[in-house]
Amino acid sequence: MVQDKMNFQRRFGIEIEFKGNRAAVCESIQRLGVACLEERYNHNTRTHWKIVTDASLGYDNAGEVVSPILQGEQGLRELELVCQGLEDAGARVDRQCGLHIHLDCRDMSVAECQTVFKRYSDYEHAIDRIMPRSRRGNARWCGTIAHSSVKRETYNTKESLSNAIGRYHKVNLTNIASRGSIEFRQHSGTTNYNKIYNWLNFLQQFVASSIQLTGVARTVRRVRSKQRWYNQLRTAYENVGGSVTYSKGLKKWRFETGETIFFLTNAQIQELYPEGSSLKNTPLKVTWQSQIRLLDGVPPQRTEQYTQDDSLTFGLTPETIDWLQRRANELS
Question: Per-residue pLDDT tens for 127-145?
């Protein structure tokens, strides 16, 4: 388990789908001192844990454990006890089961919610690598958002944003106005506390860094002006269908086309120009053009390593980045 010293002050909720006897699971959780009731299917937020049916699993010998609103160390302790109760009762999971995490977004602006969605969309292929194959791509109950758009000029209120995309996607925005939460649906079913903690820990940091990055990344307009910085380099990349943006947060230029993304600092780009040049409309060094083959439309491929240069990991602790890499290696 990643032992990041986080307070988990952003409130959260957990939904754990399982196979097993609902009454037995409820009694097992109660024996551990956690308030839990078996109820008919409902969407009501309780002050206690509840066990309900789930249509996607069938109504016999299956169910879903749904938490009240949790926060901080107390919330994590309750979660750990519930996981123990599930395992004590012999609950199991299979490919049909999922783990859903809700994070409170009532204090977040529309733009911050959009940044969370866009960053997850941008790095969905990387997040897929830490998931079982059954939860990658366009899975049934957690569909892809890789090509979904929640542009600010179109969705400028939480009410409109909540209708931008349906519920059954990896990131579900339908509750941001009514219940005040963003739901993350991609994780596979598990009753293992360490796995749930690590995923929750990542999401807490991911949302925090998304808030920090909101309004920071500035998209450079694709105007082929001779007065643009690094005009020759950017024009060459745009000629092959790419885009170039600058992130003030990372202090790096982001080059993107399709699934290919890489970053260069100002210093790295300056090495590609003749010494003492204006850097605006000065031709690139021919040797470097040949090396990176930008003009041939073959930019360098995105690295499969999780590094601090990757904006997916912006704001993540080294321990969490290490967990991402280990998890990806386990599932490769």
Answer: 999 999 999 999 989 999 9
Strand partners, 92: 19
Q: Do the beta carbons of residue 9 and residue 72 sit within 8 Å?
A: yes
- Arithmetic mean of pLDDT, 249-273: 73
For residues 225 and 15, what is the distance between their CA atoms, to the nearest angstrom?
52
Residue 40, φ and ψ in degrees, nearest 5: -70, 160
Report DSSP state, residue 175: T
Q: Report the pLDDT averaged over residues 104-128.
A: 93
Residues in the chain: 332
Q: What is the dihedral of CA 267, 271, 272, 278, to 10 degrees?
A: 80
Residue 273's closest CA among 330, 322, 231, 241? Answer: 231
Task: Give residue 208's Cα distance to chain centre.
Answer: 11
In this structure, the number of other CB atoms found within 10 A of the CB of residue 121 comes to 20
pTM score: 0.73
CATH number of 12-214: 3.30.590
What ranges do the domains of the chain cover?
12-214, 217-292
| Residue in 120, 102, 86, 332 with CA at minimum distance from that of residue 190 | 86
